[in-house]
Amino acid sequence: MSLFEMAKIPMEKASKLINLDPNAEAVISQPERTVEVSIPVKMDDGHVQVFTGYRSQNSTILGPGKGGVRYHQNVTLDEVKTLGFWMTTKCAVAGLPYGGAKGGVIVDPRKVSKTELEKITRGYIDKIAPLIGEKKDVPAPDMNTNAQIMAWMCDEFSKINCQYEPAFITGKAVSMGGSLGRNSATGRGVITATLEILKREGIKPEDATVAIQGFGNVGSWTAKIAKEKGLKIVALSDISGGIYDENGLDPYKVEAYAKEHEGLIKGYPGATAISGEAVLEQKVTVLIPAAMELQITAKNADKIQAKIIVEAANGPTDADADAILEKKGIPVVPDVLANGGGVTVSYFEWVQNLYRYFWTEEEVEERQEKMMVKAFANVYDAAKKYNTTLRVGAYIVALNALVEPMKLRGII
Ligand code: GLU
Q: Ligand 1 in contact with 339 (CB < 6 A)?
């Protein structure tokens, strides 16, 4: 089964529960448009390497396409289509006036120079330029892309259109029109979702222990905000492995240590070294996978000892694991709800760019919190009403938001 087929399972379940018009399901089940582009780049040594990129615009029913661009050596069209489908759901669940999209370039950014990375980035934008724009499709960062890459994209797109185009892309540096609070937004939202589920489960934050897989932008901010909110982090991991301390890890100190050690947490003093996989299997209150897709599968789902899972990564749990966790009674706050804080603040950035009027960090955080708490309640209530999982509940919310505009627009 492809990743895209697997991703549609909870939507199909939701669709049955709410007796969705099958025409609506048929439309949402396919991206509106996908493109594959070739990007020739003159490398530093003079030879030309042709890179492959994708953009999948899954839906523009509720607004322009929205979603990040991923740089990774294993990017596939199937993955990009799936991530775009999740963006459609995520934006609808968060109540944003956006559809869903995603992009990707097959490249290991650690294996190219900065000049080559800039050329790849500009070449990608040149090739997808006719399809993107503030009212068409708005890219953003995703795995291995950052504010510098967004700045090159913004510059290239502005050159092509002979005008300044800040609102065509989000996740920019504040000096480039980015929003305060965007860097920490996904992690902050993950913790908002965590506090909401703890409340529903009757667990006090100060009694909760947390394990986080992944210490990139999302994982590290999730850890830092978890600490600010009084949660005890006992296990962390990155590509170098895991660390465990039952007395609690200070993510700020771990981050400082990683900065001095090639960005890796391996060898962090005072903590017990464990394997990366073992971080998923600790006896904790909350497990937060914040790395990448397909980390919890039929192979390890039975070994999960956490009381609750909150998905900070996109698609960390596969369909088999989902069924096992449901049987075990472990609630999973799904990615399309839990990590929606990133795109929510991207939306704020876009609004601020369109108005050329900027908000304070407090305003951003306050509005983000309000939107996420509301989205959580909508999903939780839908799941309760239909006696289903939170993941299926999220698809119920998304489908309900999509179906009426589809009818009114005459699509179905
Ligand atoms: N890449 C992030 C995500 O998967 C953010 C997307 C955005 O801000 O548009 O949600």
A: yes
